Amino acid sequence: MKLKLYHKIIIGLVAGFLAGLILGDKATYLKPIGDIFIRGLRLIVVPLIFSTLVTGVASAGDPKEIGSLGFKTVTYFIVTTFFAVVIGLVVANVIQPGAGLALGEVSSIAHPAKVSPMQMIVNMVPLNPAAAFAKGNVLQIIVFALLFGGALSLAGDKGKPVADFFAAMAEVMFKLSDIVIRMAPYGVFALIAWTTGKFGMAILLPMGKLIAATFIASAIHVIFVYSGAVKLLARISPLDYFKKVMEPALVGLSTCSAAAAFPFTMRAQKQLGVSEKVSGFTLPMALTINMDGTALYQSVGAIFVANIYGVDLSLAQQSTIVLTAVLASIGTASIPGGGLIMLTLVLESVGLPLEGIAIVAGIDRILDMFRTTTNIFGDNSAGLVVAALENELDRGIAATPLSDMEIEDAA
Is 401 left (phi over 0), alpha (psi -120 to 50) or beta? Predict the structure, then answer.
């Protein structure tokens, strides 16, 4: 029996974990394989995002329809992010992940430059689109793509040749994605082996409560919030949703990058019956706006730092964490370690020492796995829910078992 890509990725995960335990520090020699895989994925992300978003906005036609699609998408992101932060705080308050942990020696961490919410909005508009592409500034690229796609829609027949070009470009990028995706099992194996070899069991045990709190909070959010939304709003079986999203989730788990898993997420949306119009609009936005896992981690991390410094946060301070984490998660880059940078904003908002980040940084890669996996489940639930609300969901495809799918397997 020919193995599907899904099975190969699982084999790569298990084999990589075992190889990391056996090889230890020598697993570093495998990391270049994973680096090449990530580079390949990052190579296609920017043109793929731009072409699919431009095509999605241009194909929407009526600007009012674009507004409706955007409003429902952003509303879903904000509401689920709010739930994520609250769940993180509740779980962290129950587990008290930092209680009893020796502080030890910490290095000084520089305070980041403060940026007001209004300045964050201003920074979303690129001064030079070419510079945004060169730097890989996804948020600015998305804004430019929205404006460009909207202009194409308003241009009517005169803009059709340009719209056709980007539609063709999107198809070419999908094919290029298939080529890169074939490397997934090998890239996953190398990255997991390197992660396990570097951290091992020794560093997992002392930080077990923090890891457990992040994992439990993430699992609660995925199982209850996303499943509830899929069941109540999209009226789709949560089990079908989980099965078809497992591929991009596993890639995100190993790469710690929702952007790297983007091609897999696009595939999952097809398997869920989401129209290209909706997925082409919703998923690129999700890369920077839908960061539930990151927001959840920031609330758990804040409680952890408060614990190790013996600070008892008031209800008002924890409410501040909710607001700050939701705002900070919107601007978090979809790259490994992005959440760690944004944690500084949350800690500053309630007066916690930034030096506490040095302790969390030691296992950030492992925590990042949970954050990214949660984000990817959220991206796919968003596309599914918005498609259902916009009557752009093919329920026949959504109900078809993964084993019976006729969508081309990248493996």
Answer: beta
Tens digits of residue pLDDT in 182-199: 888 898 888 888 877 876
| pLDDT tens, position by position, 269-279 | 999 999 988 89
In the structure, what pLDDT confidence band is assigned to residue 97 with cuts at 50, 70 and 90? confident
pLDDT digit string, tens, across residues 159-174: 899 999 998 998 898 8
Residue 410 has pLDDT above 60, yes or no: no
| Alpha-carbon distances, residue 68 vs 223, 277, 406 (angstroms) | 28, 13, 31
| SS3 assignment, position 34 | helix
- Most distant CA atoms of the chain, gap in Å: 67
- Separation of alpha carbons 156 and 150, rounded Å: 10
Report the alpha-carbon distance of residue 170 to residue 179 in Å, rounded: 15
- Helices H / strands E in the chain, number of each: 19, 0
Tokens of 243: 């099965």
> Which residue do the tokens 């991009």 mark?
248
Spatial distance between the Cα atoms of 86 and 79, rounded to a whole number of angstroms = 11
